[in-house]
């Protein structure tokens, strides 16, 4: 079992982090998969994709405390939902981790990303001038700061669930100082929504995990 943690955020929201283990492929016959999940598993072209898929299924089962197959389906816009289960869901994966956020009465958005030059190199694609100035004030944690801006906007994007979002203009992160764990302010500014959120984050090893509920 590769469950890193399972936490109740409030009375109806649960977050979980799963460390991906390639050994899950060898034990997939013990996961009680549905016929549909077995078909989907065979469609993936790489072991990496199969492992991520099985990790998500296993994590959801752990969060809900069930041993029967839980079907993850997708709306037309790509947003995931649980078939026949009264929870909203958001899913993310990066490197060795998969994370899931479930909520009964709020819309969730979650993202995890490794702190690396990969994100920093594209900072001008998602950070506006004010966000750049805030990051420039960091000394020791400037890369963590920039990756947190990225994961915050990804979490908001998943919360919103619609396309045509310009990260630099429609998803705005307030100035902050990176502290390893905490809450920062951010907003979605679109024609159909103008809303501020408290965004929770935590650094886990060399990854930034971020989530929002609203």
Main attributes of the structure:
214 residues, alpha+beta, Ribosomal Protein L22, Chain A, 4-stranded antiparallel β-sheet, 7 helices, 11 strands, globular
N-end to C-end Cα span: 31 Å
Low-confidence stretches: none
CATH topology of the largest domain: Ribosomal Protein L22, Chain A
Reading the helices and strands in chain order gives EEHHEEEEEHHHHHEEEE
Please give the order of strands in the largest beta sheet. Answer: 7-11-10-9-8
Q: Please give the domain count.
A: 2
The biggest sheet amounts to: 5 strands, antiparallel
Report the portion of residues in β strands. Answer: 25-35%
* Structural Rg: 17 Å
Annotated CATH architecture of the largest domain: Alpha-Beta Complex
Number of helices: 7
Q: Based on helices, strands and strand pairing, what is the structural class? A: alpha+beta
> What is the overall shape?
globular
CATH domain class name of the largest domain: Alpha Beta
- Tally of DSSP β-strands: 11
Describe the structure.
The protein is of the alpha+beta class and 214 residues long. It folds into two domains: 3-105, Alpha-Beta Complex (Ribosomal Protein L22, Chain A), CATH 3.90.470; 111-213, 4'-phosphopantetheinyl transferase domain (Ribosomal Protein L22, Chain A, Alpha-Beta Complex), CATH 3.90.470. It has seven helices and eleven strands. The chain has helices spanning 35-43, 47-64, 117-120, 123-126, 129-136, 142-160, 167-170, and strands spanning 3-10, 13-19, 72-74, 80-82, 88-94, 97-103, 108-114, 171-173, 181-190, 193-204, 207-213. A five-stranded antiparallel β-sheet has the order 7-11-10-9-8. It has a four-stranded antiparallel β-sheet with strand order 1-2-6-5, covered by helices on one side. A two-stranded antiparallel ribbon has the order 3-4. A hairpin with a 2-residue loop joins strand 1 and strand 2. The radius of gyration is 17 Å and the shape is globular. The chain starts with a strand and ends with a strand. The mean pLDDT is 93.
């Amino acid at each position: 079992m590769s469950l890193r943690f399972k936490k109740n955020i409030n009375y109806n929201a649960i977050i979980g982090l799963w460390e991906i283990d390639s050994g899950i492929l060898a034990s997939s016959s013990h996961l009680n998969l549905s016929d549909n999940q077995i078909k989907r598993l065979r469609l993936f072209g790489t072991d990496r994709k199969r492992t991520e898929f099985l990790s998500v299924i296993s994590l959801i089962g752990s969060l809900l405390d069930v041993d029967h197959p839980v079907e993850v389906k997708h709306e037309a816009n790509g947003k995931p939902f649980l078939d026949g289960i009264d929870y909203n869901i958001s899913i993310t994966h990066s490197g060795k981790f998969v994370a899931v956020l479930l909520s009964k009465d709020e819309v969730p958005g979650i993202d995890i990303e490794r702190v690396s030059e990969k994100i920093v190199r594209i900072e001008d694609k998602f950070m506006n001038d004010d966000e750049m100035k805030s990051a420039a004030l960091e000394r020791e944690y400037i890369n963590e700061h920039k990756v947190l801006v990225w994961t915050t906007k990804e979490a908001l994007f998943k919360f919103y669930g619609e396309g045509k979002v310009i990260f630099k203009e429609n998803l705005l992160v307030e100035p902050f100082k990176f502290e390893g764990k905490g809450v920062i302010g951010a907003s979605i500014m679109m024609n159909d929504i103008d809303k501020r959120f408290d965004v929770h984050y935590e650094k886990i090893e060399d990854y930034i995990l971020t989530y929002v509920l609203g």
